[in-house]
């Protein structure tokens, strides 16, 4: 196995963000809904090891959700909370 193949990378996709008081978060139970600052047509952030690497679009393919990479990420926009 080559050195590159031995590296693990965790990929995450972020649709939106929300700010909640801790008390409200603690009161939430199963089925609670957390409103996000995004809509279904907004681009998502694609993170590699919690670092923004790309932007993407959500696609529904039969019974699966897929992400299509649309452009590189701007880390400064991500840190500023840009949509």
Automatic annotation (TrEMBL):
Keyword Membrane: yes or no? Answer: no
Is S-adenosyl-L-methionine tagged as a keyword?
no
Pfam families in the record:
FliMN_C
Q: Which GO terms describe its cellular component?
A: bacterial-type flagellum basal body
What UniProt keywords apply to this chain's record, in alphabetical order? Answer: Cell projection, Cilium, Flagellum
One GO MF term, please?
cytoskeletal motor activity
Give the record's family classification.
Belongs to the FliN/MopA/SpaO family.
Q: How is this protein named in the record? A: Flagellar motor switch protein FliN/FliY
Query: Source species, please?
Result: Brevundimonas viscosa
């Amino acid at each position: 196995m080559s050195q590159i193949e031995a590296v693990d990378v965790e990929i995450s996709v972020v649709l939106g963000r929300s700010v909640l008081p801790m008390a409200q978060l603690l009161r939430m139970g199963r089925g609670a809904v957390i409103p996000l600052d995004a809509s279904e047509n907004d681009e998502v952030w694609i993170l590699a090891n919690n670092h923004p690497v790309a932007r993407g679009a959500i696609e529904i393919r039969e019974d699966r959700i897929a992400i299509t990479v649309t452009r590189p990420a701007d880390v400064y926009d991500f840190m500023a909370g840009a949509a």
